[in-house]
Amino acid sequence: MDEANYNSVVDNMRTSDGLMYGLPVVLDTADESVQPGQKVLLQYQGKDLAVMEVESKFLPNKPKEAKMCYGTSSLEHPGVQMIAMERGKYYIGGKIHGTNIYDTRCAQESKSRACRVLVLWMLRRWGGSSRCCCECVVSLAILSRLVDRS
């Protein structure tokens, strides 16, 4: 998500064009050198998945994000802890261009809510196929259709 959509989702649970989103979907980085206008290669387990054209790089308001999205700023909440302690300093957003059709088997990750939410979000946003269970198979062939979508 770019900064405008991030802020809109945090404040209103909707993107800037009105699409309902419960939580912002972000790509974080601590890399100071990443700048708008650059292209960033996205990889999973050493395999190329897609290229992001960075259109937005910003410092998120993490305390506000935690409070608005999870209703608390307590580090005892796992979502708040993830925002505060695991995410990088910056969030970046932009168009994603798929490079490969790639199936991800993530048996343990599939049990996590984050994996299921991401799968459902990708399917809802761009279509595709998925099965999320112990033998989770996420068909990322949908990435090849992401050109010119943000």
How is this structure best described in words?
- This protein has 150 residues and is an alpha+beta fold.
- It folds into two domains: 1-99, Sulfate adenylyltransferase; 101-150, no CATH class.
- Helix content is 27%, strand content 25%.
- The protein is built from four helices and seven strands; from the N terminus they run αβββααββαββ.
- It has a four-stranded antiparallel sheet, with no helix packed on it. The protein has a three-stranded antiparallel sheet with strand order 5-7-6, covered by helices on one side.
- Strand 6 and strand 7 form a beta hairpin.
- Helix 2 runs antiparallel to helix 3.
- The longest helix is centred in the C-terminal third of the chain and has 14 residues, at 113-126.
- The model is unreliable at 107-111 and 126-150 (pLDDT under 50).
Morphology call:
globular
State the distance separating the first and last CA atoms: 7 Å
Summed up, the helix count is 4
> Could you tell me the radius of gyration in angstroms?
15 Å
Task: Using the coordinates shown, work out and report the CATH topology of the largest domain.
Answer: Sulfate adenylyltransferase
CATH architecture of the largest domain: Roll
Number of separate strands: 7
> Which CATH C-level class of the largest domain is it?
Alpha Beta
Topology:
Blueprint: H1 3-12, E1 27-29, E2 39-44, E3 47-58, H2 62-70, H3 78-85, E4 90-98, E5 103-105, H4 113-126, E6 130-131, E7 137-139
Antiparallel strand pairs: 1-4, 2-3, 3-4, 5-7, 6-7
